[in-house]
Structure formats: C-alpha cells, structure tokens
Design brief:
This protein has 2 domains: about 10-200 and about 325-335, no CATH class; about 205-315, no CATH class. It contains 15 helices and no strands. It has helices at about 35-45, 50-60, 70-75, 80-90, 110-130, 135-150, 155-180, 185-195, 205-225, 230-240, 250-255, 255-280, 285-295, 300-305, 310-330.
Length: about 350
Amino acid sequence: MRRFAASLLTASATLAPAAGLLISTAHATAQPENAALAYWPLFDRVDANLVDRGWEAMKESEKLLAPGTSLAQELVDSGDVVQTAVRAASVRDCDFEIDYSEGFETLLPHLGQMRRLAKLVAVDARRLELAGDVDGAAKRTGALYRMAGHLAEDGVLISSLVAIVIGQTANDQAERLLALNPSETARRDMLEGIIAIDDGDPYDVLSSVAMEQEIVRTWLRQKFSGEDAAVQFFDMMRSFEEPTTDEGREVFEAMSQTEFYAQVDQAADVYSIITAAIYAPDREQRFASLDAALQAGEYGQVALQILPSFEHAADRTVASRDDLARVRAKLEAPTTAQPQGAAQSETGGE
C-alpha cells in the first residue's frame, strides 16, 4: 500500500490510482443505502489479470473482445460481478468511511480497487458494443459516471482525480455509442448517469480542496507539538521522498512552535485561493501568480513543503467538467434516425 506523498495535492502530478486507505471498521455496520457496502465484497471477486488483459485489448486490439473470442467469454463469465457493480452504482450515496484524522498518513485501500472495478465495467461495455448490444453497453457507461461520482464523495483530492479518469473513460465510451445512434433507452441510461454528478463541479474537486485545507489547519497542529514541532514536520515530509535529503532542515530547526503554527495557518489560507481560482476564467494567471508568491516565500516555508503546483490538476478539472457538458449536450439533442438497440441475450448485457 502507498501512503499519501506530502500533500494530497501531489496527486495532481500523476493520475495513477492509489492503493490502500485506512478506513474505520464501521463500514460493516453502515446503512444499506450506502453503495460502499455493495462494492466492498466485489473487490475480492475481480480478476485483476482479466481486467489488465481486457483493458489492454480495449486500448490496443479490440478484435480480442469480439464475440466468440476467449476474452469475451471470460467477461461473460464475470457478468455477475459487473451487473452487481452496475446495481451498486445506482445507489445514491457512497461512504467508504475514510478516517480523516490520519491526515497525510491516511491510506486508501478502496481507491485502486474501485479503479480496477471501473475498468472491468468499461471493458465489458466495449465487449457489448462490439457484440451489437448498444443498450447493455450504455447501461454500463451510465454506471461508470455514477461510480466516478461515488469516488468523488470521498472528499479527498486524489479520489476526485481518479474519479475524473473514470468519468473520462465513460465519456469516451458514450461518444462511441452516440456514433451508433443509440436507442432512447440507451441515451437515457447514459444521460441519467451524467445528471447524477453534473452539478457544476462534477468530481467534487472544490470540496476535496476544502477538506485538505481543514486537514492542514487541524491535523498538523495535532500531529506536531513542542519546540521541535517544525523539525518533526520537516522529517515527516522528507520521509515521503526518495531519496531523502536534509536540504532546508536548518530553516525548520530555527522555527519555534508558535512560528510553525502561524505558518501552518498561512499554508491553509492558500487553499482558499486555490478554490477561488480553479473555475475562474483567468485561472492560468491566478495560478501563475500564486506559484510565484509561493516560490518567493510569501506564504512561508510550510506552504512550500505541502503545496506543489496545482495548475495541471486545475486544467484537468476544468477540462473534465467541459467534456462532461459536451457529452451531455449530445445526449440531450433530439434525434430522428432509426436507433440501434439491444442484441440477443447471449451477449450477457442484462
């Protein structure tokens, strides 16, 4: 399992799925309206090797997913897992019971598992498309949007960024199905998936940044105390790096607890600037100014340690929102051509 490296914002550097999350064992007694209760048992049932082969085929050689192939049959045999995931996605709420009190040391075991499950659903959607079952493929595509929304409910930035990846996968599949003139049922299944998350900030990036702000402001004070609080913080941040280095340690050795806490508050305040900038028309200029101020030390040394450039993640956030709106507009547009519907039941596209 991989811990959060430095700030949760470092997830903006790569959108690779994280493994491992420290969660409360209370998920076993959560309300049945919680989709996480349906997802958890599925994680152990997903064949990772099948997912990897199917994903590679989807990206590199679709003919391997065509009807009659061994890979297509393996996916049909995994139909119960896929269909259960689709049903779980239809549940409105999802709570993986993240223990936010662990701060930067929080682990996310469900995150990589959800990414793998979403890949399986996406691969099966492609299989059904190739088999002519557009309705079945559309139902899975709609589920992908909802699964992305469920991950975004974590309130953790890296979860929002992985949700963006899943949402983009759904967009790509929706575009393919739109080119096949899908039935009204298929259009509705995809559109309802989008509507379930499309609220202006579809992947909850703003609330995730706000959550990280709260973590910075409160957890760092709880985690580090005493006159060497700043050095403790520095050592933790360096432990996330490979190779580790003591460069800059002298600045934190000279910092009192009072000065450290003041800089923690300064760093936390930067998150409000980030939130205001993400969807702003002039976000590029805002982030350029913010980066310059950070590098100049205007927000202190603590901010420099925990706040990498967020501009790339902001660009992805805005692009994902706009892509979602574009696909939604296409689905909502009137159509007069004869639609393609469901194929025979042997496609496994229930």
